[in-house]
Amino acid sequence: MIKIEHPNLSQIVSQHTEACVEYVTPRLNFCIALFDALGNKNYSPITQSVQKTIGIEAATAKAIVKPFIKKRKKNIAIGEIKSAICSKNNHIFVTSSKINRYKALYKFFSEVKVSLSSIIAGEPEELFSIVTNSIFQLQSDDQVKHCLELIFNYDAFVKTGFDQVNGTIWNNYSLTQVLDLSVCPYCNRSWVVTVENNGSKLTNPQLDHFFSKTDYPLLRLSFYNLIPSCETCNSRLKGAVEFSIQNNLHPYIEGYGEEGKFHSIAYDYESAIGIASNYEIFLETADPLRSEKNDRIRENHKVFKIDEIYNSHGDIVSELYRKKSNSNDKYLEILANQFPAANLTKGELYRMAFGNYYKENDFKKRPFAKLTKDIAEQLNLIVK
Prior knowledge:
Blueprint: H1 9-40, H2 50-53, H3 58-65, H4 78-86, H5 99-114, H6 116-121, H7 124-132, H8 142-151, H9 154-159, E1 162-163, E2 169-170, H10 172-179, E3 195-197, E4 200-203, E5 206-209, E6 226-229, H11 231-238, E7 260-266, H12 269-272, E8 279-285, H13 294-303, H14 306-310, H15 314-327, H16 331-338, H17 346-354, H18 369-378
Antiparallel strand pairs: 1-2, 3-4, 5-6, 7-8
Helix pairs in contact: 1-3, 1-5
């Protein structure tokens, strides 16, 4: 697992937040007005058409109120909803025994509005404090979850995107494109490049919700809850596994780093000289008494089946063993002597020698970058 880094990350977060807040706010305002009217008998919040005053389409407004309408009113016009909210003629809602319920919902959605910027832009630790705050425990309520899914509409973000003030659309492709991430951070194995052609979406990463979007609907659009990842890691391996920042590595906080390093064992002579690929590839972690990351590293490693998957790529390791065998541990020195006038930097020489990147903040650019460096260090092909 590698850390996601970008020199302009704060700017990207701001751009994402601006687009999401612009989309979310009118839907949130509608819910606040709705439950204010139903719970507090305040009939003034919505006085004109829903489209003009609230700024959301009629279909969304109807979908939000549907769970709160009497069963016999299955097909209701948007005008009836407006009339019911704006006057004392609110008999289409189940209100007689629900006043305290609606007051609680009004308070909940008002608190969400106060915390909206933090919900969208908050860093992982802040998101965790939000989802565990007693103020927001109502998000697990089925009716509330229904409203939140329409307010923090992740499906709309992916399918149509959100309007930006400059007239462009901000969506999953926009987000992953500006992050400039080429490889899945969870496995550092699969390409996840974003490619568009004349506005046609061709390929991009999936976005894993670190905190489940089902259990935590408030965080469906939160920037630091959207982890670009490959289909294998996101859909097949992590799936519905519940992650937390206490038990798992969060890619925007940390990767394996020096506390988790790949090692290899060659099981026969041919593999030891790099002409076969009979290896065991495994992760070694720092002494758990010296590294509080140890358990998080191990948990992620287990969830994403890294050992099992990496052991199918022995050819990468065999190339490193072959270079060691043929150069008597002097591969980089020999290569540098071949191009003395080039004045190659350590990173350039490393990339020429091993076809990958030397610095950890570049591991996002090519598959198996961490594996390659860790095994090269193990074999003394490079100095730590």
